[in-house]
Design the sequence.
């Protein structure tokens, strides 16, 4: 239940600034990840003992790139950023509605699934004896994301059941007048798109949990176990919360102040997943490899005698 009072511009701006601040932190983390990936790549050319730890650099690059694209898309979706920097002269409402449709498809259909699937791929290959070629990672990600994005696009742009269902099933934006009497267009997430993403999220959570359970069963190092548990919590807790908030937002009126908090929670969920994934699967393994000179750098199913395990995928 939401209070029937108008939205407060100051509150909206505060939430937008908080969202932009978190996204900026994530972009800085991604920039740091890019630096370490290429640093290890260059260093491995002159340090033979690091070459074995650089075999997944393209997959990690794919992970960081998809996270960066998702973050940039969310920045452009923020009302404060759109009004202040992107479109200082307001676009016609129909143009803004088209942009909201595009944001919905890119966010739930492409960018977020892409970095989630790449996370799963990195976890899976971390316990394999031989690393697959990078082309398999790209094929694995695109093979799942492209059909998902196509389905999202179809129901967002060409929904054949649009006239038979309530508006919130396919609504990706809403227009209303703010407290100052200005016409405002806010992006929302259509319920059909949320259902599609929710089905993906449920399947993903089960696969991710199974993959992490396999890794935990092979790792005996307490430090690595802690990292894996942190990865599980950082992915499997925010993702279901995001889906629940997406469903709630579909039935909520964007004019109400509670909608801003819901939208902030929807943003925070995948942001936490992305930050945890970059920290544990990209930054930690690279910094550990550089720190110890490459003596260990994998979750190995067959650790050497006398060694507990290794330091990351």
Sequence:
């Amino acid at each position: 239940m939401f209070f029937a009072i108008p939205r407060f511009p100051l509150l909206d701006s505060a939430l937008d600034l908080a969202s932009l601040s978190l996204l900026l932190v994530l972009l800085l983390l991604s920039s740091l990840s890019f630096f370490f990936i290429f640093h290890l790549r260059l260093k491995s050319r002159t340090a033979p003992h690091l070459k074995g730890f650089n075999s997944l650099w393209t997959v990690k690059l794919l992970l960081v790139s998809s996270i960066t694209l998702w973050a940039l898309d969310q920045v452009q979706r923020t009302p404060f950023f759109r009004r202040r920097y992107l479109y200082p002269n307001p676009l016609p409402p129909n143009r803004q509605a088209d942009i909201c449709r595009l944001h919905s498809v890119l966010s739930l259909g492409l960018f977020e699934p892409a970095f989630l699937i790449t996370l799963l791929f990195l976890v899976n290959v971390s316990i394999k004896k031989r690393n697959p070629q990078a082309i398999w990672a790209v094929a694995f990600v695109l093979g799942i994301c492209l059909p998902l994005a196509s389905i999202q696009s179809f129901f967002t742009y060409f929904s054949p059941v649009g006239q038979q269902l309530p508006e919130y099933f396919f609504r990706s934006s809403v227009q209303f007048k703010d407290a100052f009497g200005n016409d405002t267009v806010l992006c929302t997430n259509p319920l059909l798109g949320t259902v599609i993403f929710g089905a993906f999220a449920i399947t993903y959570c089960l696969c991710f949990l199974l993959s992490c359970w396999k890794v935990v069963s092979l790792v005996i190092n307490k430090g690595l176990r802690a990292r894996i548990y942190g990865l599980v919590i950082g992915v499997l807790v925010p993702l279901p919360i995001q889906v629940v908030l997406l469903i709630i937002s579909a039935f909520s009126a964007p004019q109400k102040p509670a909608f801003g908090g819901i939208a902030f929670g929807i943003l925070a969920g995948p942001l936490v997943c992305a930050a945890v994934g970059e920290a544990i699967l990209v930054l930690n393994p690279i910094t550990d490899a550089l720190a110890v000179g490459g003596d260990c750098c994998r979750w190995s199913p067959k650790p050497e005698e006398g060694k507990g395990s290794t330091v990351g995928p």
Summary: Residues 9-46 form the longest helix (38 residues). The mean pLDDT is 80. The first strand starts at residue 173 and ends at 177. The chain is about 70% helix and 5% strand.
